[in-house]
Design brief:
Elements: E1 2-5, E2 8-9, H1 20-32, E3 36-43, E4 46-48, H2 52-56, E5 65-72, H3 73-98, H4 103-121, H5 128-144, H6 154-177, H7 183-205, H8 209-233, H9 239-264, H10 268-291
Parallel strand pairs: 1-5
Antiparallel strand pairs: 1-2, 3-4, 3-5
Helix pairs in contact: 3-4, 3-6, 4-5, 5-6, 7-8, 7-10, 8-9, 9-10
Length: about 290
């Protein structure tokens, strides 16, 4: 049997693979080392759907050639963002031209975008604040459609969708340029953040609200970078340490969500408590577990 990845024949020896599904799982593991995903599968020149049950019933002895198309995760995520942007633009144009006549199709489109962003958010390629902003915006837009049609202001709805499209576009473009710092550079970020933490409350106390808010935004950004680094690199740690790193990611990610929600609600008392009693400890632990790891 001949195996191809992106139209190139590969040297792949079958071991315990009995069916096409087994082969694809092995290929997926091989590609994961290069941070790539299978996006299309062709069996003997015919494209097939990803149906585990059907693929498991296709013996390798009956197949002459398996070809897969693979893309880097970043490329797949970029394409998904592009599709979200295209779909939202289509929804906007539909509202302009046909009003609410395709209401259910529009709601289905929003649900697809929301589910897609949730999936992308789990990969660590976008920040929590970005995925939360997009998802919460979509949820608010969907609530528009729960109103009586006569109470729905289509022009307002179009303006909101337009803003959402621009935000999705900005996040998509950020994917191209955003590079995580190296592990040795994370220590400086953590030290700067630990020095900044007590200054946030002080700034509020002496009336420097703008300075305090800028510091909070900076700290949220640092937390985004730190959690994203863990999400993308957890497999690079030694096996006996991966569980500890995974727990650190879950705890810091949970704290990040709390901070973002408090910031959106302008609950500065809660943010102060989260920074003082949780973030400082999390940053110190992060430095010990990740930065000082050799």
């Amino acid at each position: 049997m001949k195996l191809k990845i992106n139209n190139e024949i590969i040297d792949f020896v079958l071991e315990n693979e009995k069916n096409v599904l087994d082969v694809l799982k092995s290929l997926s593991q091989l590609l994961s080392t290069e941070d790539a995903l299978i996006t299309r599968v062709l069996i003997d020149g015919n494209e097939i759907n990803f149906d585990d049950d059907a693929l498991s019933k296709m013996p390798v002895d009956n197949v002459r050639e398996i070809e897969v198309v693979a893309q880097k995760k970043e490329e797949v995520i970029y394409d998904l963002f592009l599709e979200c942007q295209r779909l939202l633009t289509e929804v906007k144009n539909s509202l302009k031209e046909r009003g609410l006549s395709q209401k259910q199709e529009i709601i289905d489109a929003f649900i697809w975008v929301k589910d897609t962003i949730q999936t992308i958010g789990k990969t660590g390629y976008i920040g929590n604040s970005e995925s939360i902003t997009i998802i919460s915006s979509i949820e608010k837009v969907i609530k528009f459609f729960e109103l009586d049609e006569k109470d729905i202001n289509i022009e307002t709805l179009i303006t909101v969708i337009d803003s959402l499209i621009n935000y999705v576009k900005a996040v998509r473009e950020k994917l191209i340029y955003f590079q995580l710092p190296k592990k040795e550079e994370l220590g400086n970020l953590i030290d700067e953040s630990l020095n900044l933490l007590p200054k946030v409350s002080e700034a509020f106390q002496i009336g420097k609200d703008k300075e305090a808010l800028q510091s909070i935004e900076y700290l949220i950004n640092v937390m985004e970078i730190l959690t994203t680094f863990l999400k993308r690199n957890i497999k690079t740690f030694k096996e006996d340490k991966q569980e500890k790193v995974s727990k650190l990611y879950e705890d810091m990610n949970s704290l990040l969500v709390k901070v973002i929600e408090a910031f959106e609600n302008m609950d500065m008392v809660l943010i102060g408590d989260l920074f003082e009693y949780e973030l400082s400890n999390q940053l110190a632990l992060y430095k010990e577990v990740v930065v000082m790891d050799s």
